[in-house]
Amino acid sequence: MTFPRLVAFLLFALALAAPASRAADAPRHVEGHLASGATYVVDVPATWNGTLLLYSHGYARGPDNPARNAPDTGDVNGLLEQGYALAGSSYARTGWAIEQAVPDQLATLDAFAERFGKPRRTLAWGSSMGGLVTIALMEQHPARFQGGLAICASASGTLGMMNAALDGAFVFSQLAAPELPVLMTQAGAEAGKARAAWQAAVDAAQRTPEGRARIGLAAAVAQVPLPQDNIASADTPLADVQTALYRGLLPATLMPRDDQTERAGGGNFSWNDGIDYAVQLRDSGRAEWVRALYKEAGLN
User: Residue 219's closest CA among 253, 175, 184, 194?
Assistant: First the structure.
């Protein structure tokens, strides 16, 4: 059955049902507030299979801070159709909110149980920073979950991730643009200017063989992830690998370090004293690609 015909059939079936039946068959949608000031959102299908999926969202920058119980609306609808209940909170603050996210997610579970009863199974899931929140929930409160899925998680934690970002930014700036700030401590308009300067420098480097090689080296020590289709085959063209590293360099290195992170941490918490970047390259798993890029550029 095609999707339009399926939609028409469902609308026809709903039209035949009594109003009370339609209300009973509709998913239940609830929004509320937690004691911390965070908000939460819950969706429960009419035919609930007893499993609750607790979603932890990723890093949110800026004042907007809506509660989310899935990555997008399509995921909400698809999971509800399969019988899963969904829940998630906004966290009490935006930014790097690991400290606030864990208790707010637990409070969301409590609010769900009070309204709909205790689930037979509770599964935690989340993406990016939310993947790290998921890991923290599972490690710190294992009795409350029967499973979890951390998607593209910031699993190395704040220090590891920020240090890797510093490594990549330091290497690129030293080799290609020493005037660039390696720590993104700016806020507001100044942060925008710094990012624009970085983007211009990386774009300029990408236009020369030497610059492409240096981007590859910086991305390697920053542990920039590659899309699966770029690493699935040893026959992947070097240019395709380098393009993926170029696209991933700035998102992986220009981690925000303004009031969302450094003020919460009490100051700068990244360092590269004593770092051997030859070892970093060796351990990156990308050394052969970097050597090939340097050879192509006539560098050593």
Answer: 253
